[in-house]
Amino acid sequence: MNIIQKITTVSALALGIALPVSSMAQTTMDHSKMDMSQPAASMTEGEVKKIDLEAGKVTIKHGPIKHMDMPGMTMVFTAKDKALLANVKPGDKVEFMVINEGGKMIVTDLKGAR
Description:
Blueprint: H1 3-27, E1 44-52, E2 57-62, E3 73-79, E4 93-101, E5 104-112
Parallel strand pairs: 3-5
Antiparallel strand pairs: 1-2, 1-4, 2-3, 4-5
C-alpha cells in the first residue's frame, strides 16, 4: 500500500469508530436534569375596552401574557363561551386566561380583577 491509501484507510476506520460513539453519547444523556419547562399558563391582568356579545368577542388592553411571551397591547379576543362576557363591561379591570387555538386567541376564563 502506498502512503495515501494507508492514510485514507486509517481515516475511514477512525471516522467509523467515532460516529457510533458520538451518537451513543447523545442517547445516554440524562435529560431529567435539563429544565425544558415552558412558563406555566397564568391569568393576565387587563382592562375591557369593548364587548361584542353577539360575536362573542372582547377587546382587552392587557399587560404581558407571560406564558405566550407576548408584550402588553390592546387586542380583540374570542371568548370560548359567550357567557364569559355577561358579567363584564367596558372599563372593568379583569384577569383572564388566553390560549392559542389554531392561531386564534381564545379567552377561556375571564373575571373581575381583585
